[in-house]
Design a protein that fits this description.
40% of the residues lie in helices and 13% in strands. It is of the alpha/beta class. The protein has a seven-stranded mixed sheet with strand order 1-7-6-5-4-2-3, sandwiched between helices. A four-stranded antiparallel sheet has the order 8-9-11-10, covered by helices on one side. The two termini are 23 Å apart.
Length: 387
């Protein structure tokens, strides 16, 4: 039983069929198939259809979306493209995953500025809207230029109240000059596809997520959504082949004209286009099921898991039991057992869980729409055997 749905999607049949169809066409005539679908008239460019399908899910416009290969690549494009001024900082947390933290660090090493990290909670009992927003507000300084948060922490399962944090940023920005406005960046991958909320309602400026996890899309696919007007603050990192202006400027030996657009930030080069284009079918698949049905099912199954684990005297649950502050990840400690040993024992019983690769490792479960209540009960039966 796969109780690690946060990791990498098992693609549903419509997505596999789409990838196979594109792959066969590339094998039969790679030049013509790419030329017709990538460089012909704008209406025939498949990447535009990918952006349109994504925008229907995120909210906002197709032109608000840049296509990437992963959450990590998207975050790197954001932080490398946003240059801090002298004395400015990124404010983030100690709860970030390695690649989010490292994307910030590398950008600061390259362009200057600094990073400051805070704790938002010590345990699940500390998690509330007021407490988290208060900690962030107390930590923000006049020199804070970027606020970097993660929607769902993969080391604890805590889901942040992003919209409330966004409201705080709006309030603080009213008294700030344009050059000092706080830019709110979110690593959103572990809420994207298992939460009912639309991205454009969360209040952030930039949102990076892979589409190969909860969206069930092809591996090596992702996106960055930006609030309208925010792409102008980004300097692209990798040359694109998804927009005409940068290429035309090169041919005419001039700089590109106009403000940066999302397509300019989408990394170029010849990608696994059969995967990128198969994202359309992934969004169509989850649309047919319904985002509310998916969110409700994820909450139901992981709620069943949390309630069962909370009853075990030797288990400490790191994830809040409230669905308001959790999503599809459940993390715990088992007294007297290392997380790796717990995961190994579960694997013997054909249950796939994981040990988080953080400084403090935990046992991590993640139930998705492929699972059933019976799967959760079988998992709990094994967890009850740990003495």
């Amino acid at each position: 039983m796969h109780i690690s749905n946060f990791f990498l999607a098992s693609n549903p049949k419509p997505v596999r069929d789409a990838m196979a169809r594109h792959r066969q066409a590339f094998d039969e005539n790679p030049y013509t198939y790419l030329e017709d679908n990538m460089f012909a008239s704008p209406g025939d460019m498949v990447w535009r259809k990918v952006c349109a399908a994504a925008a229907e899910y995120t909210g906002g416009r197709a032109e608000d979306i840049a296509l990437t290969t992963s959450t990590t690549q998207g975050l790197a494009m954001i932080y490398n493209g946003l240059k801090l001024g002298s004395g400015q900082e990124i404010l983030t947390t100690h709860h970030e995953w390695y690649t989010h933290d490292e994307a910030m660090r590398l950008a600061v090493v390259k362009w200057g500025g600094s990073i400051r990290r805070i704790d938002l909670y010590e345990g699940p009992e500390d998690v509330s809207v007021d407490a988290i927003v208060a900690r962030i507000e107390a930590a923000i300084k006049p020199t804070t230029r970027i606020l970097a948060m993660t929607w769902v922490h993969s080391g604890t399962g805590v889901r942040l109240p992003l919209k409330d944090i966004g409201n705080l940023v709006v309030r603080l920005n009213r008294d700030r000059a344009e050059a000092d406005q706080i830019i709110y960046v979110v690593d959103g991958v572990h809420g994207f596809g298992c939460s009912e909320a639309q991205v454009d309602s969360l209040g952030c400026d930039f949102f990076s997520a892979g589409t190969h996890k909860w969206i069930l899309g092809p591996h090596g696919t992702g996106l960055v959504w930006a609030r309208e007007g925010q792409w102008a603050q980004i300097t692209p990192t990798i040359p694109t082949i998804m927009a005409a202006e940068p290429g035309n400027a090169w041919r005419q030996q001039r700089d590109p004209q106009g403000e940066t657009q999302a397509a300019w930030v989408s990394p170029g080069g010849f990608l696994a286009f059969e995967n990128q284009w198969g994202v359309i079918e992934a969004f169509e698949f989850i649309k047919k099921i319904g985002r509310k049905r998916i969110a409700d099912r994820v909450a139901e199954l992981n709620g069943q898991l949390k309630e069962g684990l909370a009853k075990l005297p030797n288990v400490y649950l790191h994830t809040p039991r409230s669905a308001e502050f959790s999503a599809g990840i459940v993390c715990c400690d088992v007294k007297g057992w290392t997380p790796k040993d717990v995961v190994a024992k579960l694997k013997v019983q054909k249950i796939i869980a994981s040990a988080t690769p953080y400084r403090h490792s935990t046992v991590r479960f993640s139930a998705g729409i492929i699972n059933t209540p019976e799967d959760i009960e079988k998992t709990l039966q094994v967890m009850r055997t740990f003495a």
